[in-house]
Specification:
12% of the residues lie in helices and 41% in strands. By secondary structure, it is mainly beta. It has a 4-stranded antiparallel sheet, with helices on one face.
């Protein structure tokens, strides 16, 4: 894990906010030395603390999870990782 970076900001530079975000939670389970299986859920009507609590309780034995915030509209969706790692993603160097 790399060291945390931080700097002061001016909050007037932001143009929009989302007060009731939607989240995607991916549960990962190793099925072979080189393979992973995932279960995916969309979660709404809660904040990140509630989503993390839900994910902890919903994870099957041996599963890890990744939580994303969903951004966009219609067929132009994207996600921002909030917690966890994707075991299928190449490691950053």
């Amino acid at each position: 894990m790399s060291p945390l970076s931080f700097r002061p900001v001016d909050p007037r530079d932001q143009r929009w906010e989302v007060w009731h975000p939607t989240y995607r939670v991916y549960f990962w389970k190793s099925i072979s030395p080189m393979g992973w299986q995932s279960r995916e859920f969309e979660v709404s009507d809660g904040d990140i603390i509630e989503v993390l609590d839900w994910a902890e309780g919903a994870a099957d034995d041996g599963e890890r999870f990744t939580v994303f915030a969903v951004l966009g509209d219609g067929d132009r969706l994207g996600v921002v990782r909030l917690a966890g790692e994707d075991p299928t993603r190449p490691r950053d160097t």
